[in-house]
Amino acid sequence: ALGRGHAWYVGTELAAEGWAALLGVAAAHAGLRPPLAAPAEVEVGERHAADGTRYTFLLNHGDAPATVAAPDLRGAELLTGATLTGEVRLPPLGVAIVRR
C-alpha cells in the first residue's frame, strides 16, 4: 500500500449523470464542499492569494440567466466593478470574478 488514501475503480463507461453522481459521492467521502452553493449549470471555483484575499470565479454554462445567492458572496466583482452584497446574476454563458 502506498500512502493514505482511497482508490475508486469504475469498471464501465458512465453517462454524464452517472459520473456526476459518482463524483458527488467521492467528493463527499473526501470532505470536499464547493465554496458556495450555486445552480447546477454554474461552475464555482476559488483561489486564494498569499495575502489572504479570496477570488471566487462563477461561470454560467447554461443558456439561461442564473442567480447565485449566498450571504458571504460580498466583494468587488472585477469584470464590471460592481459591489456585491450577497447575490450575483449571471447572463447566459456569463462570467463573474469576485474579490472577497
Briefly characterize the structure.
This protein is mainly beta.
Describe the structure.
- There is one protein chain.
- The protein is mainly beta.
- The protein contains one helix and five strands; from the N terminus they run αβββββ.
- A five-stranded antiparallel sheet has the order 1-2-5-3-4, with no helix packed on it.
- The radius of gyration is 17 Å and the shape is globular.
- The mean pLDDT is 90.
Mean pLDDT: 90
Shape: globular
Low-pLDDT sequence parts = none
User: Strand-residue fraction?
Assistant: 35-45%
- Helical content (DSSP H or I, runs of 4+): 10-25%
User: Oligomeric form of this entry?
Assistant: single chain
What is the N-to-C order of secondary-structure elements (H for helix, E for strand)? HEEEEE
Main sheet makeup: 5 strands, antiparallel
Describe the secondary-structure layout.
Layout: H1 16-29, E1 42-48, E2 54-60, E3 66-77, E4 83-90, E5 95-99
Antiparallel strand pairs: 1-2, 2-5, 3-4, 3-5
